[in-house]
Amino acid sequence: MKKKILLLMGIFSSGIICSQVGINTQNPLGVFHVDPLANTNVTGTNGYEDDVIVTSTGNVGIGTVTPTAKLDVRGSVRIADGTQAEGKIFTTAGTGLGYWAETFKFQIIESSVYDGLLLPGGNGAAWLAVTPEVELTAGKWMLMARLVTKNACASTYFTWLRLLDASTGNAINAAGGRPSYDGAYYDIVETVGVIDITSGTKKVVLQGQNWSNCTYTSPDLGGSYLYAIKLS
After folding, report:
1. pTM to 2 decimal places
2. CB 145: neighbour CB atoms within 10 A?
3. What are the UniProt keywords, alphabetically (predicted)?
4. pLDDT tens per residue across all 232 residues of the chain
5. Residue 11 DSSP symbol
6. In the chain, is it the N or the C terminus that has fewer CB atoms within a 10 Å radius of its CB?
7. Could you give the C-alpha distances from 132 to 12, 55, 79, 91, in angstroms and in order?
8. Which residue range(s) make up the domain with 193?
9. Buried (b) or exposed (e) across 119-141, using 16+ Cβ within 10 A?
């Protein structure tokens, strides 16, 4: 017991006097320096790969005696908290606390567009859903939509198209276009929008309108679509 006390006193007294503690080294290169293989040279240019060091600035180095960050690790790192698995990535939610997460998978959802629908017309016309509701999970999504229409009464009223957040009733984006004549009055309207869902799910839908009271969705040709592409 007396020997242990004397040993500890010796370590602490040498640390107080020298302001440096070295384990397995007579030449500590930092406030605290461990050299397991006792093979680091005096200048620290060789044999440091197995070393652990704490510098006077508070930086900690593993595999280096000149750490340039609060924790500087040279070599492989293993973080095993029980949730690690093949294919996962180590990330953070922005708090600085890391965790293992599933690898991001690019996802595209396609929705059908109803054909032969008569779009609402007249001044102050209501919007009509031209697709089923699409349910989106948490993340950032880009929405791409196109609506092809045919006007049966030679009207040149604009066809309007909008992407709607059906969960809140707010428009994500909208666009309009005047039909052109090619044996009949056809119109192609496109729009793009982005929705960021922080949690849970949301439903989106594509809507259209035309004041003419005689505009139909894709009655004799295709080309209409609604895509939801997950970005993150």
Report:
1. 0.59
2. 28
3. Signal
4. 555 554 455 555 554 455 799 999 999 999 999 999 999 999 999 999 999 999 999 999 999 999 999 999 999 999 999 999 998 999 887 788 999 988 877 899 999 999 999 998 877 678 999 999 999 999 999 999 999 998 888 778 888 999 999 999 999 999 888 887 766 788 889 999 999 999 999 999 999 998 888 888 876 677 899 999 999 8
5. H
6. N
7. 75, 63, 45, 35
8. 107-230
9. bbbeeebebbebbeebebeeeeb
